[in-house]
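Recap from last week: sequence in, structure out.
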Amino acid sequence: MKSPLILKLGSVEHLTEQEEERANSLCRSTMTTPKAHDIISEGTDPQHVHLIIDGWAARYSITANGGRRITAFLIPGDFCDIHVTTLAAMDHSIVAITDCMVGYVDKTAIDSITRSTPLLTRAFWRATLVDEAILRRWLVNSGRKDAYASTAHLLCELHLRLRIVGRAEEDRFDLPLTQQDLADAVGLTSVHVNRVMKRLREDGLIEREQNTMRILDLARLCEVAEFNPNYLHLHHLGKGCGPAISGN
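Predicted structure tokens:
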């Protein structure tokens, strides 16, 4: 089975076996970051690029009044901070939502690839541009969609992203997020998120048992969310609101 990193890169660019092997060889050491601990903190200058190998993390910032705003959820195959190869310091933090296995990639290895492997370089930057497209979609949703639709959209997006990296089934996926995590991502209170999730259940769209999210009617959930996956820039989109995923 291909690694989550290769599956993610392969969703935005066709890679040769040689390029896949080179991408897999980037991570030469790993470390486990416990749940609720920062993988990287704002203001630091990481000496390595961090890759989520297993577990969930979140990109976040703290407001002046002490509130937290999550601006991305990071899943296996996601780089936390590939931009630090060009920027001086982190302008936000990355926290482990669950215990995370994190890969450490030397900055010079990324620089070497950008100088010698154009196709793999393009895959890295396309994946980064998709991350930015996700953030833009979150901003649109929080400003122009109601809480019901924006929460449904987030669930559709997470389900699809997890399917891409082989971490979800067609009708279910692990969702180790608290109501507060969801609230900090969609810009609501946890009480409001609780009401929205209850409505989604009552409407027969989802079921949740502990950390397992089951989607009962994906087509209707996508319709409620107005979910169009084009912003994820995937190679092959199948019927419905998700791609035809193969090769896992």
